[in-house]
Amino acid sequence: MLSRTAENLYWISRYMERAETMARLLDVGYRMSLFPNPKGYHNEWDSVLSAAGAAQGYFTKYNEINQENVEDYIFFDEENPSSVYSCISKARNNALLVRTAFTPEAWVAINKSYKEILELKNKKFTRADLPNFTEWTIQQVNMFRGSANSLLRNDGYHFIFLGTFIERADNSARLLDVKYFVLLPTADYIGGNLDNLQWIILLRSLSSFRAFRWAYDGDVTSTKIAHFFILNNDCSRSLSFCINNIVYHLNCLKCSPDKISDIYSGLKSVHNSVKDETVESIIEYGLHEYVTNFVSKISFLDNQIQNHFFR
Amino acid sequence: MFDEMYSDDAQIRKHYLQVNSWLRTMSSTVISQKNFEAESHFKRIGITFSVKDDDMTERIIPFDLIPRILTNYEWAKIEKGVLQRAKALNAFLHDIYNSGEIFKAGIVPKEIVYKKSSYDQSMINFSPPRKIYSPIIGVDLVRTGKDEFYVLEDNCRTPSGVSYMLENREIMMKMFPDLFHTNRVLRVDDYPTRLLQTLMSLAPKKCDSNIPTVVLLTPGHLNSAYYEHTFLSDQMGIEMVESQDLFVENDLLYMKTVDGPKKIDVVYRRIDDEFLDPLCYNPDSVIGVPGITQVYKTGGVNICSAPGAGIADDKAIYIFVPEMIKFYLGETPILDNVETWRCERDDELTYVLENIEKLVVKEVDGSGGYGMLIGPKSTKDQISDFSTKLKSNPRGYIAQPTLDLSSSPTLIDNEVSGRRVDLRPFCLVGEKVQLCPGGLTRVALNKGSYVVNSSQGGGVKDTWVLAD
């Protein structure tokens, strides 16, 4: 497989995954904005921007935070390289370049999403549309993933899913960080009512609330939720689940065994950080610190993949 | 005018009977719906072309539901004639780049060949694998009578349109499966396999594998035939590469893969000669591969078609093809050329100017139906403007009689009406010389028009060759 093809496939799935995260993040902000917050604490949109890595870009364009602007910036703004629009349009451009590595249905799925978001972008929208946009985005990404099932199980397929899980590992970690790093800067809040409400909103936004209920008995506690999102191998968005999938797809690659073993040695440390940890030790160490550390390990892994296979 | 469906006494020809009764069963609602279905299909898969004078907007080529049908008998002649031509054209290319026998025999004046920019001097004394320069030749044919087929031109570089031949058949089989139960239509869907076999049979001498690595080199997704490039690579299961995927090392050509460099044996290039190698041709080319010609000349890779193959389809060389067939093959030409006047000759220019309202005058280097004058269809002003251009640069033009192109039943506003057609079959020249039974039928959708080019109101049809 051409390096360029592999690189394009890897990025198509990263962009599609990122589009979904962005949409889900907005949904977190939207749900939070509908609940009364104690102490007039109203920076849910601020935290959404931070988690999206879009705060700096946003403030060069706008002076104040409000839902319409944040929504526009994160969904449709071409200047925001991670907006849902930017992600889908970059995924579509990459797909155009690797049409031979794609089945017709995978191409049609992406092409259709692109055509639709162009239309959505030009329509006037209202605050109430946000949940619809989120739902639409999630559907598009599911369609893409579903169509990827029709692909030949060659290296291209595994590069697609390497991209998916690297991006998801990074994004899940960032979503967790919104919770600890921004929403609740001091330890006083932990375990309080607000805390629980926001955890539940987070669960709902990740379509994981019911899954969580099935997986754990009794009360919703921050420890259980942290366990769910970090260490539970049954949760399709947990850090552990993502890492296991990265290991799996790397092992499936048929190309360059020496390169793969080289990458695997780098992967080991991030693998250990989900394998041998307990949720108590993570919280004691500091969730924010743990997550930051995790994100930088993922970024190192991403660099290794790019240097070994795409250069 | 010869009608493909009706004989002179207004009877439906036997091979059109089934299609005719099928046509009668279709209401205009069904026709509209099927048209819509076909159009959506072509849009969805993105089979588009660009129009020169229209800001390169992407458009879909109109598809006509009524197939163009050729009997096995008719095809037999076309097949023999095209194969013969393809062999002669390749023999000609080898000759003019090597010993030049045809010059010595006084059949083709060498000045004509040497003066052409498509004659590549760097190819002199070089011989590609199997002496084949042009492995894919698209021969444009028109019909004027029951047994009268003429060759309008040959396309020896990288003829396009074969993806339409295949996609048109696919959509017809999908929409009207019953038609294929009642008619025995020869298959075309193995064309990509045959193309791959042809390319593999042309591996260079340094290729040490039984299964040569073949790639398709595309200029990229802005090219108007990009869909065809992706389609053919996909159907052949070969990599579609761009220049940035390739590099030259130790007189071999490699592509960059996730496994590291992989040696390439055969390049099916869909870029023009001048862009192939910035070290050898146009130094500003960013879509070519620096050093690829050196690899080619030392037997490290084969480039299909060969650089300089384009001289064989030059309009000035065209007139010599019947002579070539006699000279190289010792055979009588099966398909005729259209009578052609070369305006660079004084007496022929005089004739052309005197009879211009009856003739078609074409630029020697023009293509796509641009830069031409169709005498009977032009106004006095257009004719006088064109005559002025002609007089100032006679060497740039040739003239041919206006051929009465055959007419084929076509759906116009859901009604059947006759429209003029041509035919481009695709000949493969490798270890075997073969012709896929079918081709691209283009149809002039405007009433009375002779211009079948998609850029100027042309459409396409599925082309059937019947098994018996």
End-to-end separation of chain B: 26 Å
User: Gyration radius of chain B, to the nearest Å?
Assistant: 23 Å
- Compute the average pLDDT of chain A: 84
Most extensive chain interface and residues per partner: A-B, 21 and 19 residues
Please compute the radius of gyration of chain A using only Cα atoms. 19 Å
Model description:
With 311 residues, chain A is mainly alpha-helical. Chain A folds into two domains: 1-151, no CATH class; 152-311, no CATH class. Helices cover 73% and strands 0% of the residues of chain A. Chain A has 15 helices and no strands. Chain A is globular. With 468 residues, chain B is an alpha+beta fold. Chain B folds into two domains: 14-333 and 423-465, no CATH class; 339-400, Dna Ligase, domain 1, CATH 3.30.1490. Chain B contains 14 helices and 23 strands. Chain B has a five-stranded mixed sheet. In chain B, α10 links the parallel β11 and β12. In chain B, α3 (72-97) packs across α12 (321-329). The longest helix of chain B has 26 residues, at 72-97.
